[in-house]
Design goal:
By secondary structure, the protein is of the alpha/beta class. It contains 5 helices and 9 strands. Helix 1 (about 40-55) packs across helix 5 (about 135-155) and helix 2 (about 65-75) runs parallel beside helix 3. The termini are far apart.
Length: about 160
């Protein structure tokens, strides 16, 4: 699979930046760029591959600070955020989503967690989706598509 990965150093988090191209017949679509934050490398890689095969451009990072750096560099590029809740040291996925939503209030947010879903009603941002681990990759793709389609309807002026 053609891609480039940047490793910022032994003490720095891993950051996977996918180069636009074709994978599994799905052309990358920069209008569907997703920021994925997951501290478990194998889960991050699985999500990246699934989203790329579904036609999304993906930037994958391992912690909230790296996510904020990537988002701050190109806030208009990202159309959705997929984040784990417990991201190791530093900010949580809850904190990350609130910070990003302060800049981009309508950004679709999908939370994934093995144990924090009970806190979603009080900690999650409005109009977000919680997916419990373990999950199937189509759940992530469906959640992003659902929120993006809802956003498109609102952007078109078809408010309920």
């Amino acid at each position: 699979m053609p891609h480039s990965s940047a490793v910022l150093g032994l003490t720095e988090p891993i950051c996977h930046l996918r180069v636009p191209g074709e994978v599994g017949g799905a052309l990358y679509n920069e209008y569907r760029a997703v920021l994925v934050v997951e501290d478990e490398t194998l889960i991050l890689m699985d999500i990246e591959v699934a989203l790329e095969e579904a036609g999304f451009a993906v930037t994958g990072v391992a912690n909230a600070e790296s996510a904020l750096t990537a988002f701050s560099a190109e806030p208009d590029r990202f159309k959705a955020l997929v984040t784990d809740i417990r991201l190791g040291l530093g900010k949580s996925g809850w904190d990350l989503a609130r910070e990003i939503r302060a800049t981009k209030p309508a950004l679709p947010v999908i939370y994934i967690s093995g144990d924090s879903d009970v806190h979603w009603p009080s900690e999650g941002v409005p109009n977000s989706i919680m997916i419990s681990k373990p999950f199937f990759m189509p759940q992530i793709i469906t959640a992003i598509s659902t929120l993006l389609n809802g956003q498109s309807t609102l952007d078109a002026g078809n408010r309920p």
